[in-house]
């Protein structure tokens, strides 16, 4: 996903640079994902439709207040950012896949997206800052 999953880049010692936002996400991969494997599963065989249904279940839990995106990401996200509650750090335009970037930049801080499809899989994105 991101070129860098850290909160600061070499030119950005303090964290947030101009035009950058910070997001967390929850990724569910499927068999047609760019890399259909993760730290959770060596070979992902679910369909895209199954991945979307899984993600919608997570979305319902977040919307109901039962759990936060970060809490779910720790055990359920197929991204290595799961260990950081899905935190991708700060990023600017051109650093993420276009669909992800468009959805992330459209969010207000604290807001969670609906299902966002990219070549990596399907995501829920929460804008942090």
TrEMBL record:
Keyword hit for Oxidoreductase = no
Write the record's keywords in alphabetical order, separated by commas. Answer: Isomerase, Rotamase
Per its UniProt record, what InterPro entries does this chain match?
PPIase_dom_sf (IPR046357), PPIase_Pin1 (IPR051370), PPIase_PpiC (IPR000297)
EC annotation? 5.2.1.8
A GO term for molecular function: peptidyl-prolyl cis-trans isomerase activity
Report the enzyme's class at the first EC level.
Answer: isomerase
Query: Where are the stretches annotated Disordered?
Result: 1-20
Q: Does the keyword Isomerase apply?
A: yes
This entry carries the following GO cellular component terms, namely: cytosol; nucleus
**Residues annotated as domain PpiC:** 18-129
Tell me which domain of life the UniProt entry assigns to the organism this sequence originates from. Answer: Eukaryota
- Enumerate the Gene Ontology biological process terms: positive regulation of transcription initiation by RNA polymerase II
Catalytic activity of the protein: [protein]-peptidylproline (omega=180) = [protein]-peptidylproline (omega=0)
Q: What protein is this chain from?
A: Peptidyl-prolyl cis-trans isomerase
Organism name: Penicillium cataractarum
């Amino acid at each position: 996903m991101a070129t860098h999953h850290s909160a600061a880049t070499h030119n950005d010692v303090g964290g947030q640079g101009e035009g950058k936002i910070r997001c967390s996400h929850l990724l569910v991969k499927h068999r047609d994902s760019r890399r259909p494997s993760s730290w959770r599963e060596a070979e992902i065989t679910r369909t895209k439709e199954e991945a979307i249904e899984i993600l919608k279940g997570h979305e319902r839990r977040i919307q109901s207040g039962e759990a936060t995106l970060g809490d779910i990401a720790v055990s359920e996200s197929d991204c290595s950012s799961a260990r950081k509650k899905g935190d991708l750090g700060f990023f600017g335009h051109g650093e993420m896949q276009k669909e992800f970037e468009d959805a992330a930049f459209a969010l207000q801080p604290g807001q969670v997206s609906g299902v966002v499809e990219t070549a990596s899989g399907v995501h829920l994105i929460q804008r942090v800052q």
